[in-house]
Design a protein that fits this description.
This protein is an alpha+beta fold. Helices cover 57% and strands 9% of the residues. It has two domains: 74 residues, no CATH class; 193 residues, no CATH class. The strands form two sheets. It has a four-stranded antiparallel sheet with strand order 3-4-5-6. A two-stranded parallel sheet has the order 1-2. The relative contact order is 0.10. The C terminus is likely disordered.
């Protein structure tokens, strides 16, 4: 479609005949993501607040559909790369965010850690080096002041502010540790996402939300008992990238609900359905 035709369509968004304006919206939406740059230009140049509002809604719908498409592709991909999954989640709020930018930022954190890291160290000491760089030198930490902020689930915001929730801090920690060739994975503990260092000889746990505190399986058992829960294997063993992204999305739903953004919470719930197996969304 020519730009002049698109311009003509946008001018009809304010038509008093609801049937015409609805038809125009359908026509624009049928163009898909290629219409987004043009709509953004039109929003900037249009002086009618009503039309601007309609354009905003159209842009959001197109961006949301693109996000769903990417998320479904990621879900069906054989590797389900964790950083890509977290990037897709972040594009819900930051649609122009580039995956390459996140890769570069994580590469810098890895490099800062690698400078102080020694592969011959005992596992506990390897973890203490990562803790020292992430939490002392780079000042990453728990966002306890604004725990329910949606930004805590957005990896770009956590990389920028150095403050996050358990899952995003664990993701950053884990991506750096794995690049250092360490057997560090996520663990789906109830109410708290943690990490485990697990190889043939060792297994212990790391709480990235508490400055990389190292603890044992017995500590997890005590924690489970305090919550009056029946122990499950998943409370102790590594989980995969899909489970991590699902949990991050559930956190985001909760954040939006806590701050009264119910429409956004519902949209994120629909994203969870895109990557659910048989509709079981869990908690």
């Amino acid at each position: 479609m020519q730009e002049s035709e698109l311009k003509a369509l946008v001018s009809l968004l304010d038509d008093e005949d609801k049937q015409i304006s609805s038809h125009v919206e359908e026509k624009i939406l049928s163009l898909g993501k290629q219409a987004i740059p043009f709509l953004e230009q039109e929003w900037e140049s249009n002086l009618n607040p009503h039309v601007q509002g309609r354009i905003e809604e159209l842009i959001h719908t197109l961006q949301y559909e693109l996000l769903k498409e990417r998320l479904k592709e990621w879900y069906l991909s054989p590797d389900q790369d964790l950083l890509t999954g977290m990037w897709i989640l972040a594009t819900y709020q930051y649609p122009d965010l580039e995956l390459e930018k996140l890769r570069q930022e994580l590469e810098q954190i890895y490099y800062d850690t690698w400078l102080e890291f020694r592969p011959d160290l005992y596992p506990y000491d390897q973890v203490k080096v990562i803790n020292s760089v992430l939490f002392n030198k780079l000042k990453f930490g728990a966002n306890t002041k604004n725990f329910h902020s949606p930004g805590n689930s957005m990896i770009n915001i956590v990389l920028e502010s150095r403050k996050g929730n358990p899952i995003t801090l664990c993701v950053i920690y884990m991506l750096v540790a794995q690049k250092l060739k360490l057997p560090v994975s996520g663990v789906n503990l109830p109410n708290l996402f943690i990490l485990t260092y697990k190889d043939d000889k060792h297994q212990f746990y790391i709480n990235a939300f508490n400055r990389g505190l190292i603890f044992s399986k017995q500590d997890i058992e005590n924690y489970i008992n305090e919550l009056h829960l029946v122990p499950q294997t998943s409370f102790y063993e590594p989980c995969n990238s899909l489970e991590i992204v699902r949990r991050a999305l559930r956190n985001l739903v909760m954040s939006f609900e806590k701050i009264g953004e119910h429409a956004k919470a519902e949209e994120v719930k629909l994203l969870l359905i895109e990557i659910s197996d048989g509709g079981d969304l869990g908690v």
